[in-house]
C-alpha cells in the first residue's frame, strides 16, 4: 500500500488547481455532514423544547443551504477527482506501453500477447478507480469522520468514548479481510489475463480452429477460464462484503452502550435531549463513512495487487542495450567472427565465421533448425552473441546505435506483417509516404501490377492480417517495404517462399539487381533462388559446414550435395 501511494502521489503535483477545487468539494461534503448532524440539536432543544419561532424559520433555511452546499461540493469533487484520476491513468498506460516496447524480442516470445493486453487494460483499469475515486473517497470519508467525531466529542466527551471505542477494535478483523482480498485480487487479475490470452489466441488462430472443427474444444477451454474468474470474483465479494456485517455489529453494540449511558444521563437531567439526539445522529452518520472507508480500503487492495503486477513489468529491463555509434555511412564489410548463440540451454550457433562485402549476395542454406534465422537475429540484434563478435566495417555491432542499425537494415521475415492501414503506409512503414518512392518499391517487388488494379491503388486499405491479399501478394508488399528504406543491408529470410515459380524467378533477378550496391543475405529452401549467390553458407546443427560458390560446393561439400539432390528429386 505504501509503495502504491509512493508511486502515484507524486503524479498529482501536476494538478494543483484541480486538487484545490476537489478539496473544496470534499470539505463541503464533509462539513455538510457535520453540519447536518449538528442541526439536530437546535431543532430539538430550541424549536421543539424551547419553542423558539425564529429558529423554526432558520433551521429549514439552514438545512437547504447545508444540503445544497454538500450536493454542489460532491459534484465538483467527483468531476475534478475523476479528471485527475483518468489523466494519471492515461499517462500510466502510455508509460507502461513505452516501457514494454523497449523490452527485448525474447520477452515477447515468452510472454503471451493476451497477457500483456490484460496488463495494459484490465490491470490499469483496476488502478484507475483507486487513483481517482478511492483516493478522493479516502480523503472525503476521513474528513467526514473527523467532522462527525468533532460533533460527537463536542456533544458529550464521555459518550463519545463508548461510541467510538469500536473503531480501534474493528481494525483487527478488517485488516485480516483486507489481506485475504489482496490475495484474491491477484488471482482474479491472473484469471482475467488468462481470459484475454485465450481470446487473443482464439481469434488469431481462428482459421486453424475452423479448419479442425475445434470450436467446441476452444469454447470449453474458455468456459473453464471464465468459470474460474467467476469463482474468484464471487469469493472476493463474499470476503469483502463481510466487512459490512462486522461493522454493523460493532456499531450496534456501541450504539446500545451509548443509549444506555446517554439515556440515563438525559433522565438524570445531566444532558439535554437535543444534545443526546445530535450525538446519536452524528454517531449513526459516522458509521456510514467508517463503513465506506473499510470498503475503499478493500477495493484499494485490488488496485495494489494490479499495481504490483504492473510494476513487475517495470522490473524487467532490456538486455540488448544500444550503442552510441552511428551505423557506418558506407558499409563495405560485415565480419562474423567465432560467433556462438544460446537460447537458454540450447546452443543454436557454434563458432560461426562468415564475411560479406558490399555488392555481395550471401546465401544461407541448410536443414530446418540449422541456425540460419538465428544468425539473422544476431545481425539485427534481436539477440546478442554469447561469444565471438560481429563487425560492420571496423565497428563492433554492439557499439552501434540500435535505431541507426535497424534503419539501415531491412529484413523480410518468413512471417509477413501487415498493418491495418493503406498499402502506401504499409510500404513506407515508419517513414513519410513518398508516392513516387512507394510506386517504385512496389514495382521492384513486382507488386505494382496487382496494386494498381485495386480500387484505391496504393491507398487501398489492407486489414491487419492482410487477408484481402494472397500469400504471394503479401510477401511482395513485405519486399516492397524492405526496399522502400533503401537499406545498406538487405536480409531476405524465406522472403520468396510463397511466390509461384515465375514471380520467384523475376524477384530473384530483381534481388540480383538491387544487391549490387548493398550487402544482401538470402535464406532460401529453394536452391534455385540462390544459385548465383556470391557465397553460399551451408548450415548444419548450428554450424557452418561449407562456404563457397554453388559450383564449388557441388564438387566439395557433401552436405550441399545432399541438399541439392533432395531439391532435385
Ligand atoms: N527464440 C528462440 N528461442 C529458443 N529457441 C529457438 C528460438 N529460435 C530458434 N530456436 C531454436 O534454435 C535452433 C535454430 O533455429 P533457427 O530458427 O535459427 O533455424 P533455421 O535454420 O532458421 O530453421 P528454418 O529453416 O526452419 O527457419 C532450432 O533448434 C530452434 O528450435
List the helices and strands and how they pair.
Elements: H1 2-8, H2 16-49, H3 53-102, H4 105-110, H5 113-155, H6 157-164, H7 166-204, H8 206-211, H9 215-240, H10 243-267, H11 273-314, E1 333-343, E2 346-357, E3 361-366, H12 372-379, E4 387-392, E5 395-396, H13 402-408, E6 409-412, H14 423-427, H15 435-444, H16 448-453, H17 471-484, E7 489-493, H18 501-514, E8 519-523, E9 535-540, E10 543-548, H19 550-556, H20 558-567
Parallel strand pairs: 3-8, 3-9, 6-7, 7-8
Antiparallel strand pairs: 1-2, 1-4, 4-5, 9-10
This protein binds adenosine-5'-triphosphate.
Would you give an account of this structure?
It is a multi-pass membrane protein. Its main location: membrane. It is a single chain. This protein is α/β, with parallel strands linked by helices. It has 2 domains: about 325 residues, ABC transporter type 1, transmembrane domain (ABC transporter transmembrane region fold, Up-down Bundle), CATH 1.20.1560; about 240 residues, P-loop containing nucleotide triphosphate hydrolases (Rossmann fold, 3-Layer(aba) Sandwich). It is built from 20 helices and 10 strands. The longest helix has about 50 residues. The two termini are about 70 Å apart. The structure holds adenosine-5'-triphosphate (ATP). Adenosine-5'-triphosphate binds next to strand 2 and helix 12.
Amino acid at each position: 500500500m505504501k509503495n502504491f501511494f509512493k508511486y502515484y502521489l507524486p503524479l498529482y503535483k501536476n494538478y494543483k488547481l484541480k486538487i484545490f477545487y476537489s478539496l473544496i468539494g470534499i470539505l463541503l461534503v464533509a462539513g455538510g455532514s457535520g453540519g447536518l448532524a449538528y442541526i439536530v440539536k437546535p431543532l430539538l432543544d430550541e424549536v421543539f423544547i424551547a419553542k423558539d419561532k425564529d429558529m423554526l424559520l432558520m433551521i429549514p433555511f439552514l438545512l437547504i443551504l447545508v444540503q445544497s452546499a454538500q450536493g454542489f461540493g460532491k459534484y465538483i469533487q467527483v468531476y475534478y477527482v475523476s479528471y485527475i484520476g483518468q489523466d494519471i491513468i492515461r499517462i500510466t498506460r502510455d508509460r507502461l506501453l513505452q516501457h514494454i516496447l523497449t523490452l527485448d524480442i525474447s520477452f515477447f516470445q515468452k510472454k503471451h500477447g493476451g497477457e500483456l493486453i490484460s496488463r495494459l487494460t484490465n490491470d490499469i483499469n483496476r488502478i484507475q478507480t483507486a487513483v481517482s475515486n478511492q483516493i478522493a473517497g479516502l480523503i472525503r470519508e476521513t474528513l467526514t469522520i473527523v467532522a462527525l467525531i468533532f460533533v460527537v466529542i463536542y456533544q458529550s466527551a464521555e459518550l463519545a468514548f463508548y461510541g467510538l471505542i469500536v473503531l480501534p477494535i474493528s481494525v483487527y478483523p478488517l485488516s485480516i479481510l483486507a489481506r485475504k482480498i489482496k490475495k484474491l485480487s491477484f488471482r482474479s487479475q491472473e484469471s482475467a489475463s488468462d481470459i484475454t490470452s485465450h481470446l487473443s489466441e482464439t481469434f488469431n488462430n481462428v482459421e486453424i480452429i475452423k479448419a479442425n472443427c475445434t470450436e467446441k474444444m476452444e469454447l470449453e477451454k474458455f468456459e473453464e477460464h471464465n468459470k474460474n474468474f467467476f469463482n474468484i470474483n464471487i469469493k472476493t465479494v463474499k470476503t469483502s462484503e463481510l466487512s459490512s456485517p462486522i461493522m454493523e455489529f460493532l456499531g450496534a453494540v456501541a450504539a446500545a452502550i451509548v443509549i444506555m449511558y446517554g439515556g440515563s444521563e438525559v433522565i438524570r437531567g445531566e444532558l439535554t435531549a437535543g444534545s443526546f439526539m445530535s450525538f446519536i445522529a452524528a454517531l449513526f452518520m459516522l458509521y456510514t463513512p467508517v463503513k465506506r472507508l473499510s470498503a475503499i480500503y478493500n477495493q484499494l487492495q485490488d488496485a495494489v495487487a494490479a499495481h504490483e503486477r504492473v510494476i513487475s513489468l517495470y522490473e524487467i529491463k532490456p538486455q540488448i542495450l544500444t550503442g552510441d555509434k552511428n551505423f557506418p555511412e558506407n558499409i563495405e564489410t560485415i565480419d562474423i567472427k567465432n560467433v556462438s548463440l544460446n537460447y537458454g540451454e540450447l546452443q543454436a550457433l557454434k563458432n560461426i565465421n562468415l564475411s560479406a562485402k558490399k555488392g555481395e549476395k550471401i546465401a544461407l542454406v541448410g536443414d530446418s533448425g540449422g541456425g540460419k534465422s538465428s544468425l539473422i537475429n544476431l545481425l539485427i540484434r534481436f539477440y546478442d552473441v554469447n561469444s565471438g563478435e560481429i563487425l560492420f566495417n571496423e565497428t563492433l555491432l554492439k557499439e552501434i546505435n540500435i535505431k541507426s542499425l535497424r534503419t539501415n537494415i531491412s529484413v523480410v521475415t518468413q512471417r509477413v506483417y501487415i498493418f491495418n492501414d493503406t498499402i502506401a503506409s504499409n510500404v513506407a512503414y515508419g517513414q513519410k509516404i513518398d508516392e513516387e518512392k512507394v510506386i517504385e518499391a512496389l514495382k521492384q517487388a513486382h507488386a505494382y501490377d496487382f496494386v494498381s488494379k485495386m480500387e484505391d491503388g496504393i491507398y487501398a486499405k489492407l486489414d491487419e492480417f492482410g487477408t484481402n491479399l494472397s500469400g504471394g501478394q503479401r510477401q511482395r508488399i513485405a519486399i516492397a517495404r524492405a526496399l522502400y528504406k533503401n537499406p545498406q543491408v538487405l536480409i531476405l529470410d524465406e522472403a520468396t517462399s510463397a511466390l509461384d515459380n515465375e514471380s520467384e524467378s523475376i524477384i530473384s533477378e530483381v534481388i540480383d539487381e538491387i544487391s549490387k550496391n548493398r550487402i544482401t543475405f538470402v535464406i532460401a529452401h529453394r536452391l534455385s533462388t540462390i544459385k548465383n549467390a556470391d557465397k553460399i553458407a551451408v548450415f548444419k546443427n548450428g554450424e557452418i559446414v561449407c562456404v563457397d560458390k554453388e559450383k564449388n560446393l557441388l564438387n566439395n561439400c557433401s552436405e550441399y550435395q545432399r541438399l541439392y539432390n533432395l531439391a532435385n528429386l
